[in-house]
Amino acid sequence: MKRIFLFILTNLAVLVVISVILSLLGISGNPNNMGSLLAFSAVVGFTGSIISLLTSKMVAKRSVGAEVITQPQNELESWLLNTVAAQAKQWNVKTPEVAIYHSPEPNAFATGASKNNSLVAVSTGLLQNMSRDEVEAVLAHEMAHVGNGDMVTLTLIQGVVNTFVVFLSRLISNMVATNDRGETNGGIYFLVSMVLQVLFGFLASFIVMWFSRQREYRADAGAAKLVGAPKMIAALQRLKGETSELPKEMTALGIASEAKKDSLLSTHPSLDNRIARLKGM
């Protein structure tokens, strides 16, 4: 719950900061002009999401200290590169960068600005604690995220959600701060706008988290098609009881999940639900 709260808080902070910067620069959507307000809201809403997408690989590498495999140093690294390359070919996408990061917890993630500019990283804990079949399934899950374009889709959804958060908060704030003579109190407008932006942003996060859970089911299904459902089920079974130690801003990217049951603020479905969904395929 703490990580989800920080994830939401970070997104809201970006919205508020961009709104304030644009306002100080004199760029402010006119609440009395729907077109102007919507355009302003879209700029604020998409800016943070797009920046996050474009810098996602760099941030991910630095956050976990991931080391990209350029020249394999051993048989395991060669196997990783060959496995990801084969799966990328099945998805008809460019082979992602493959990296390993040091962590005792079994985990992996995929990120990147597009299907053909992506990164797949696995932890040392995952390589040490899983069989080759299970690692292959985890890699297939991450490649399904890449092949499905989940990073771009999540960015677009976050941008659209942010746009309406800003739009509605400013529209309602203008109604509250404007008196019968058509005069608007700037202080009240700003204060109400910030409060509503936080409130609507929190409520809108339910939509983003719902999509995040659905993309995990789709990635599991994609992996099952590549390597078979039994391998994916075995990998998820192995993850039960493990914790995710990814940085808070990357929790939604990892395959491991701490959730014991689904909730409105879960980035991942519970492992039991994911396994049940695969068994029902």
Please give the share of residues in helix: 55-70%
Mean pLDDT: 84
Order of helices and strands: HHHEHEEEHHHHHH
User: What is the global morphology?
Assistant: elongated
Poorly predicted regions: none
* Total strands: 4
Radius of gyration based on Cα positions: 21 Å
Structural class: alpha+beta
Question: In whole angstroms, how far apart are the ends?
Answer: 31 Å
Spatial sequence of strands, sheet with the most strands = 1-2-4-3
Largest sheet: 4 strands, mixed
Count up the helices: 10
- Report strand %: 5-15%
Question: What does the model show?
Answer:
It is a single chain. By secondary structure, the chain is an alpha+beta fold. It is 65% helix and 7% strand. It has a four-stranded mixed beta sheet with strand order 1-2-4-3, sandwiched between helices. A hairpin with a 2-residue loop joins β3 and β4 (117-123). α2 (34-54) packs antiparallel against α7 (150-177), α4 (75-91) packs parallel to α6 (132-147) and α8 crosses α9 (229-239). The two termini are 31 Å apart.
